[in-house]
Amino acid sequence: MSYAGAVTLADHASPAPRPGRRADAERNRAAIIEAAGEVFAECGGGVDVREIARRSGVGMGTLYRHFPTKDELLVTVLEQQFEAWLTDAHQQAMATEDPWRALTGFFEQTLSTQARNRAVVESLTATGGPSSSCVERCYSIIDQLRTRCVDVGMLRPGVTTEDLFLLSGSLSQAVLSTADSRPGQWRRLLRISLDGLSSRNSEPLPAGTI
């Protein structure tokens, strides 16, 4: 993905920097990442990066020097946001003694976070996350939560970690598709889904091709 507009890296060529990034360069990079996080959350990954430059208070040349393509900037921002979200979600889940509440709380926190961040939802629905490490970590957390529920007989028989991971992605798509028209609809869909996962439902699940 390339930046919109006719500006190129060659237009902003500069002498090689001295060893170590200067303090002002570090501040510029931090400002770009912070502004990008806000803009991507509001508008999604398709936003014009000129808006990011404007909010961060830097010129386009400075933005290009730190992030030659919008893809690089988007992945950097999303990885930071995913790591922060997963760390917080995992800590809350592990601190919750009741396994079922830990699982449902994870889903609720995940989707409420996504409802405030369009770019995160786009990444989840497209690839499951911005990087393979993020996907693997999310899968691992879900597996831990599923195992805890299975151990105490709270989860419907036959439900797999893959089922829960795919369900999370499906609900993420619902968050994205209803964000403008029915922003709270995902809560209803989540409740319906969680009821279906409860061990109160003992009917065998259809065979899948997992």
Automatic annotation (TrEMBL):
Pfam families: TetR_C_43 (PF21597), TetR_N (PF00440). Residues 26-85 form the HTH tetR-type domain. InterPro entries: Homeodomain-like_sf (IPR009057), HTH-type_TetR-like_transc_reg (IPR050109), HTH_TetR (IPR001647), Tet_transcr_reg_TetR-rel_C_sf (IPR036271), TetR_SbtR-like_C (IPR049445). Residues 48-67 bind DNA. Keywords: DNA-binding, Transcription, Transcription regulation. Residues 1-25 are annotated as: Disordered. This is TetR family transcriptional regulator.
